[in-house]
Automatic annotation (TrEMBL):
<protein>
    <submittedName>
        <fullName>ADP-ribosylation factor protein 3</fullName>
    </submittedName>
</protein>
<dbReference type="InterPro" id="IPR044612">
    <property type="entry name" value="ARL2/3"/>
</dbReference>
<keyword id="KW-0519">Myristate</keyword>
<dbReference type="GO" id="GO:0003924">
    <property type="term" value="F:GTPase activity"/>
</dbReference>
<feature type="binding site">
    <location>
        <begin position="42"/>
        <end position="45"/>
    </location>
    <ligand>
        <name>GTP</name>
    </ligand>
</feature>
<keyword id="KW-0342">GTP-binding</keyword>
<dbReference type="InterPro" id="IPR027417">
    <property type="entry name" value="P-loop_NTPase"/>
</dbReference>
<keyword id="KW-0449">Lipoprotein</keyword>
<dbReference type="GO" id="GO:0005525">
    <property type="term" value="F:GTP binding"/>
</dbReference>
<dbReference type="Pfam" id="PF00025">
    <property type="entry name" value="Arf"/>
</dbReference>
<dbReference type="InterPro" id="IPR006689">
    <property type="entry name" value="Small_GTPase_ARF/SAR"/>
</dbReference>
<keyword id="KW-0547">Nucleotide-binding</keyword>
<comment type="similarity">
    <text>Belongs to the small GTPase superfamily. Arf family.</text>
</comment>
């Protein structure tokens, strides 16, 4: 099963709009249609980082209706939140019949 994992630098407010557009383009790719999406809201340890809920709003995740998605706050340098995101991925692997 294919999963899409997208990492966002939550401290880079300037590039958030660009990141949103890039994700929207990826979500339109036929090869990724309906593929579950995990977004890591990275760099939560920085004072300038937006909370994951604000990142979800900026990315328009609430508008996604054709796939399951999850946003996970994380700090990649120390692993905070990474495991929780991977656990979500494992729980959302569809069972083939």
């Amino acid at each position: 099963m294919i999963f899409q994992i997208y990492v966002v630098d939550c401290s880079d407010h300037v590039r958030l709009e660009e990141t949103s557009q890039e994700l929207a383009e990826l979500l339109q790719d036929d090869k990724l249609r309906g593929v579950p999406l995990l977004v890591y809201a990275n760099k939560q340890d920085l004072a300038t980082a937006l909370p994951a809920s604000d990142v979800a709003t900026h990315l328009g995740l609430h508008l996604i209706r054709d796939r399951t998605w999850q946003i996970q706050a994380c700090v990649a340098t120390d692993g905070t939140g990474v495991k929780e995101g991977m656990e979500w991925v494992c729980k959302n692997i569809p069972v083939k019949k």
